[in-house]
Amino acid sequence: MSDRKADLEALRDELKARLERYRAHRERAAGALDKDIEDQSLETRDDEVVASLEAEAEEELGRVRHALARIREGRGEYCERCGEVIDAGRLAAVPHATLCRDCCDG
Ligand SMILES: [Zn+2]
């Protein structure tokens, strides 16, 4: 048995911490509206980057939580689509995988 669950829990906590930082950034940006126009346009570009990073982290967190739920159900090592065992190398490389390599490509 691997420590995949522990890895996923660590990843989940890291993603949650990252999302907290993005939210803090957004609140800071919202409080910085009295800057001059040039600064504001820089802030806006920066905010767009943060917003897309935030969306990515949200999505990854969703996948991690989903994989953890599958592990709790005792189905963590099985492909969600075809029911085959997901190979250990893939799970080591992609701890949040819930599809086998074949199904993932399809
Ligand atoms: Zn499959």
UniProtKB/TrEMBL annotation:
Signal peptide: none annotated. Keywords: Coiled coil, Metal-binding, Zinc, Zinc-finger. This is TraR/DksA C4-type zinc finger protein. It comes from Halomonas koreensis. A zinc finger (dksA C4-type) spans 79-103. InterPro entries: Znf_DskA_TraR (IPR000962), Znf_DskA_TraR_CS (IPR020458). Transmembrane segments: none annotated. Residues 76-104 form the Zinc finger DksA/TraR C4-type domain. It comes from the Bacteria. The lineage of its organism: Bacteria, Pseudomonadati, Pseudomonadota, Gammaproteobacteria, Oceanospirillales. Residues 5-32 form a coiled coil.
